[in-house]
Amino acid sequence: MAMPHKMRSLLPIFLAGVSCHALSQTPPKTVQERLGYPASARLLVIHADDLGMNHSVNRATFEALEKGWITSASILVPCPWFPEVARWAKQHPNADLGIHLALTSEWTDFRWGPVSGPSRVPSLVDADGYFPLDTPDVVQNAKIPDVEYELRSQIDRAKAAGIPITHLDMHMAGMVSSGELFGVYRKLRDAYNLPILLEPSGTHGPPAGISVPVEEIPLQRVITMEPGVAAKDWADWYKKQLAPLPPGVYQMIVHLAYDDE
Amino acid sequence: MAMPHKMRSLLPIFLAGVSCHALSQTPPKTVQERLGYPASARLLVIHADDLGMNHSVNRATFEALEKGWITSASILVPCPWFPEVARWAKQHPNADLGIHLALTSEWTDFRWGPVSGPSRVPSLVDADGYFPLDTPDVVQNAKIPDVEYELRSQIDRAKAAGIPITHLDMHMAGMVSSGELFGVYRKLRDAYNLPILLEPSGTHGPPAGISVPVEEIPLQRVITMEPGVAAKDWADWYKKQLAPLPPGVYQMIVHLAYDDE
């Protein structure tokens, strides 16, 4: 593996590139070139999701960021341990932190809901007042003005807490699960001038039937190990995924926690 | 210690007694007599606060209830692990569970806010959208209609989750911290026909300057060990508190958790 995996500020730089190239007549450069690397470079973002979910996730992710094992993470603002993230971020102003835009709450015994409150965004909550357990419920019930209001509230709460946000991504692929939700995702990208997680196709790709200019897509591919791989096989799994990758920019998503909660 | 400490349904029975005796001409019987015990009885409720706060509190409190080490507990409905409580309560329909009416969120790294949402009850949240850290902020800022709306929402959410509620008490003595808040506490008692935690004076007594008929006060005294007693001295501390108590009904409040979170 000869990839540089220290890529702080990669995505903001890329974003600046997007607008230039969208207007230019020459073929767009590769993302790696726009980031100042040769066209032959293979670049990898190692990214932890779900920061703020609980204390165990926070401790593991803080440690991985501090030790350089990962390069960035994104925050679940509605979760109860968000204040610990805000405090840690103040002590680590160079940490590469994004907002993990959330409209779902997937654990049955431990749940969260909209930061803007169930009565403000009633289409985003289930009968118990929480975000629904899974994304199809969001696609079916969420009203787009509620989605935009709530997600702006999540971003704004993080900004108000002093966190220098570098990017936006999404919990449980919510923002690419329908054309309307994807529209909000792009709108927030433009409104806050922040890059969004997006791959050409796949789990984190645009919804079916929606064509997106290549300049809007920062990543060649997102690499995530799904449950089912035995712990002893993890290193092999990652090697097999990463070794054959052609030049480009990739993001590996991990979910960190201590096994104690 | 010759106190019976299995007192399920003590408080609901007591409440039924309250209305009768408030109207009678004869001197009211003692609470222990109204519960069917002799006037010389010393009765003890052993009660755990803060159920629902986190998984560690839940595990410890469930175990203590199941093993009869405590007789009742009260639930922090706004906390993220409330759904686990609702699930456990369904499996333990005889558990003596109340609502720990909450208007504060005291941990700096882990916080919660109103179940009715910050925009519905704006006077109950701080600049970060959470309940304030301490009760004086509630006394200073909370508007009484917001308080009543939010606390009804907490009770209603627990009822909607199928929990058979036996009593109301309060987080961080919030409901006795001003005359107006105490008014809401009594109003909820009457509206839901549920007994409230109240002692004649002290931390869980009526606010200064407010006179309460003795028939409204179910407990002789609330006994809570405050931080500062070394673990090796806990048993002695409890013996010294309990041994000299005269006849009456007492409540010992404990805060249970595993030391792992």
Features:
disordered N terminus; homodimer; alpha/beta; 6-stranded parallel β-sheet; 261 residues
Descriptive overview:
Two copies of one chain form a homodimer. Chain A has eight helices and six strands. The first copy, chain A, starts with 9 loop residues before the first helix and ends in a 7-residue tail after the last strand. In chain A, 33% of the residues lie in helices and 14% in strands. The first copy, chain A, is globular and about 50 Å long. By secondary structure, chain A is of the alpha/beta class. In chain A, strand 1, helix 3 and strand 2 form a beta-alpha-beta unit. Mean pLDDT of chain A is 91; it is low at 1-22. In chain A, helix 6 runs parallel beside helix 7 (179-192). The first copy, chain A, has a six-stranded parallel sheet, with helices on one face. The interface between A and B is medium-sized, with 29 and 29 residues.
What would a concise description of this structure say?
Two copies of one chain form a homodimer. Chain A is an alpha/beta fold.
